[in-house]
């Protein structure tokens, strides 16, 4: 059986890893248009191994995140990828947020996640510089470099005979009993095609003759780093209580595996699917987004939120003010601009954000269409889910 995976991010490489483990005699090929693995979403995130607190009980995200939290830490430990289980605080910055904090704690319990409600004094035992009315402590949250995980997966795949073809951009797909994938590095034939193309997954699905139920809308998440002399203000990870009416979590503070401390991300509409900089504009991506009714309906629904995110994007002072809600000692002078990531968020034609993983199967094809956070945490579990839907050799 010949399996071809498009996309060398963490989900694509985890799927290749699972296939080469489960079917050692199969032919497994991974295609990617870039010259390295983890070039996009995998290599541009905050490196958090999530516990699964936020996700609707019973959803795929909730189930796979709880399992993925354990399997990702175990994988990193086994393969000497630096990893640390730091725990995190989710903090109510004033009494008005306490009902939402309590509801979040109840959701954590429903998802089977260890979590404890803390008083202000107890929260400061974990984070001495935090300011809050109360907090939830989630001890199983961790940190890692997901690009390093992806490189380790690639090494394991190649050691088992899998092929990694970089610099091979897909230009066309001819589906059938055997699927032919046309690339800039030549054609590849597959019995089974697995689409893990992330920011371009919906386009790849259409090339394969599948009409996806939602479309990728790219949101750029911008980060700041704390200056080295101010990193002591954050020991681990500090998150605000999310507003359930809004699609994203809000600015938070996260310590990286390298010792750096990140503030962010915000969430602004990117003008290119690979729009890691404000100045990056792709006319094809922009025209497609502007013509999509789902984006306009989403924008109308969250207009005030979008304006606030844009203003924060343009102002270090506003960004710092949000971070200071969590740690009041932080000022604009403590922050310096860092990198950005782009989230491939699927949006339906009605303007709804797809709030769970979305995997579409067709004969000889599997398309991982919506895999935003916590997909990196869940990558090994998503891979098992994908491979379980594929025909065995």
* CATH structural fold name of the largest domain: FAD/NAD(P)-binding domain
Task: Characterize the overall form.
Answer: globular
The total of helices stands at 11
Tell me the name of the CATH class of the largest domain: Alpha Beta
Largest sheet: 9 strands, mixed
The overall strand count is: 21
Number of domains: 3
Q: Name the beta content range.
A: 25-35%
- Rg over CA atoms, rounded to whole Å, is 21 Å
Low-confidence stretches: none
The helix content is: 25-40%
Rounded mean pLDDT is: 95
Structural class based on helices, strands and sheet pairing: alpha+beta
> What is the oligomer described by this structure?
single chain
Q: Could you say what the CATH architecture of the largest domain is?
A: 3-Layer(bba) Sandwich
Detailed description of the structure:
A hairpin with a 4-residue loop joins strand 10 and strand 11. The radius of gyration is 21 Å and the shape is globular. The chain folds into 3 domains: 2-46 and 147-214 and 356-388, FAD/NAD(P)-binding domain; 88-139, no CATH class; 215-230 and 243-353, D-Amino Acid Oxidase, Chain A, domain 2 (2-Layer Sandwich), CATH 3.30.9. The protein contains 11 helices and 21 strands. Helix 2 packs across helix 11. With 393 residues, it is an alpha+beta fold. 31% of the residues lie in helices and 27% in strands.
């Amino acid at each position: 059986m010949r399996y071809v995976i498009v996309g060398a991010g963490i989900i694509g490489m985890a799927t290749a890893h699972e296939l080469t483990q489960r079917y050692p005699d199969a032919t497994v090929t991974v295609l990617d248009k870039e010259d390295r693995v983890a070039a996009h979403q995998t290599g541009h995130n905050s490196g958090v191994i999530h516990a699964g607190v936020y996700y609707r009980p019973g959803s795929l995200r909730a189930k796979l995140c709880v399992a993925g939290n354990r399997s990702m830490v175990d994988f990193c430990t086994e393969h000497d990828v630096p990893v640390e289980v730091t725990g995190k605080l989710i903090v109510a910055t004033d009494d008005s947020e306490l009902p939402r904090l309590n509801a979040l704690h109840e959701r954590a319990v429903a998802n089977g996640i260890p979590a404890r409600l803390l008083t202000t004094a107890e929260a400061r035992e974990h984070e001495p510089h935090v300011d809050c009315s109360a907090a939830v402590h989630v001890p199983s949250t961790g940190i890692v470099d997901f690009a390093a995980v992806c490189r380790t997966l690639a090494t394991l795949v190649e050691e088992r005979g899998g092929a990694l073809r970089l610099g091979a951009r897909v230009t066309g797909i001819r589906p059938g009993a055997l699927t032919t994938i046309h690339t800039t590095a030549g054609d590849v034939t597959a019995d089974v095609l697995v689409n893990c193309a992330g920011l371009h997954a919906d386009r790849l699905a259409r090339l394969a003759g599948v009409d996806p139920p939602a479309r990728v809308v790219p949101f750029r998440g911008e980060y700041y780093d704390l200056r080295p002399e101010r990193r002591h203000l954050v020991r681990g990870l500090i998150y605000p209580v999310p507003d359930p009416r809004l699609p994203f979590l809000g600015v938070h503070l996260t310590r990286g595996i390298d010792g750096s401390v990140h503030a962010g991300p915000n969430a602004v509409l990117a003008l290119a699917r690979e729009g890691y900089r404000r100045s990056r504009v792709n006319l094809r991506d922009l025209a497609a987004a502007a013509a999509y009714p789902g984006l306009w309906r989403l924008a109308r629904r969250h207009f005030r939120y979008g304006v606030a995110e844009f203003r924060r994007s343009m102002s270090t002072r506003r960004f710092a003010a949000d971070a200071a809600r969590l740690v009041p000692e932080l000022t604009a002078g403590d922050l310096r601009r860092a990198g950005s990531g782009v989230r491939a968020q699927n949006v339906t034609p009605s303007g709804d954000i797809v709030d769970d993983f979305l995997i579409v199967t067709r004969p000889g094809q599997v398309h991982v269409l919506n895999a935003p956070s916590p997909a990196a945490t869940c990558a090994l579990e998503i891979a098992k889910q994908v491979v379980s839907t594929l025909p065995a050799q």
